[in-house]
């Protein structure tokens, strides 16, 4: 004979099917960095990394996600403390691995030097990949940004690297001759330079500084890292179907 409690439990399965169970809503953050995130603060207006997160969570049962645009340092602090469940695809390093569990690869991202074409009409020495040949130039980078240890070491010998809050501020440093070149993502550079009406005036080096994969970072402190295997499964499916490339190239028309 089935115990009354068991009967109630079985009935509950029909009254509240799995699809109706409460979803786990994961909170993610990133800084303003178009085309990866569109908008300045609060909820983003879109962006390739925001779209990829939506595509991933759509393939995970009973999980949804929301994104908040925050200053980069604040975003990392919240993920470290567990007040944020994760960070949109970012680069791995040892310090971040202390508080984040990384997914499998998301986007392949290239970083390049950008400069005034009038300042270097023949391009950068060595095409931009010979760091010692650039060591006497003044470099601008984003606050908290990390691209390549060897590059940063070479270009900080003669003078310290100038840091700025966002890419438009870096473009202004170039235009005002306060730096000779800046180091940013190629996708971000193309998007921002064209949006500012500076295409042809500010251009990328012939060779990228680096080509690296970015990864979703899931907070260990919040417990969101328990979803890493589900994120990996969804990413594998999206890569196999060509969806990751489609999302990454979705802003090609605006670049």
What does the secondary structure layout of this molecule look like, with pairings?
Layout: H1 4-15, E1 24-30, H2 48-57, E2 63-69, H3 72-81, E3 86-90, H4 94-97, E4 100-116, E5 139-142, H5 149-154, E6 162-164, H6 167-175, E7 181-185, H7 186-195, E8 202-204, E9 210-219, H8 228-240, H9 243-248
Parallel strand pairs: 1-2, 1-3, 5-6, 5-7
Antiparallel strand pairs: 3-9, 4-7, 4-8, 4-9
Q: pLDDT average, as an integer? A: 89
Percent range of helical residues:
25-40%
Biggest beta-sheet profile: 9 strands, mixed
Structural class label: alpha/beta
Strand/helix succession: HEHEHEHEEHEHEHEEHH
The total of helices stands at 9
Distance between the termini: 69 Å
Low-confidence parts lasting 5 or more residues at pLDDT below 50? 1-20
Regarding quaternary structure, what we see is single chain
How large is the share of residues in beta strands?
A: 15-25%
Walk me through the structure:
With 255 residues, this protein is α/β, with parallel strands linked by helices. It is built from nine helices and nine strands. The N terminus is likely disordered.
């Amino acid at each position: 004979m089935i115990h009354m409690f068991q009967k109630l439990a079985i009935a509950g399965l029909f009254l509240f099917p799995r699809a109706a169970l409460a979803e786990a809503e994961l909170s993610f953050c990133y800084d303003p960095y178009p085309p990866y995130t569109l908008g300045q603060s609060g909820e983003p207006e879109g962006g390739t990394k925001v779209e990829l997160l939506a595509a991933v969570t759509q393939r995970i049962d009973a999980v949804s996600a929301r994104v908040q645009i925050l200053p980069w340092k604040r975003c990392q602090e919240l993920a470290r403390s567990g007040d944020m469940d994760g960070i949109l695809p970012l680069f791995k390093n040892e310090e971040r691995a202390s508080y984040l569990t990384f997914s499998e690869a998301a986007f392949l991202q290239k970083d390049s030097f950008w400069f005034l074409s009038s300042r270097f009409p023949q391009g950068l020495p060595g095409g931009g990949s010979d760091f010692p040949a650039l060591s006497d130039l003044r470099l601008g980078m984003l606050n908290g940004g990390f691209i390549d240890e060897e590059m940063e070491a070479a270009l900080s010998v003669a003078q310290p690297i100038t840091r700025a809050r966002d890419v438009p501020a870096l473009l202004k440093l170039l235009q005002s001759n306060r730096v000779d070149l800046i180091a940013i993502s190629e996708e971000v550079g193309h998007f921002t330079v064209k949006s500012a009406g500076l295409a042809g005036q500010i251009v990328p080096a012939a060779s990228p500084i680096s080509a690296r994969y970015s990864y979703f970072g899931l907070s260990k402190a919040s417990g969101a890292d328990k979803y890493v295997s589900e994120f990996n499964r969804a990413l594998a499916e999206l890569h196999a179907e060509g969806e990751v490339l489609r999302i990454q190239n979705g802003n090609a028309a605006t670049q």
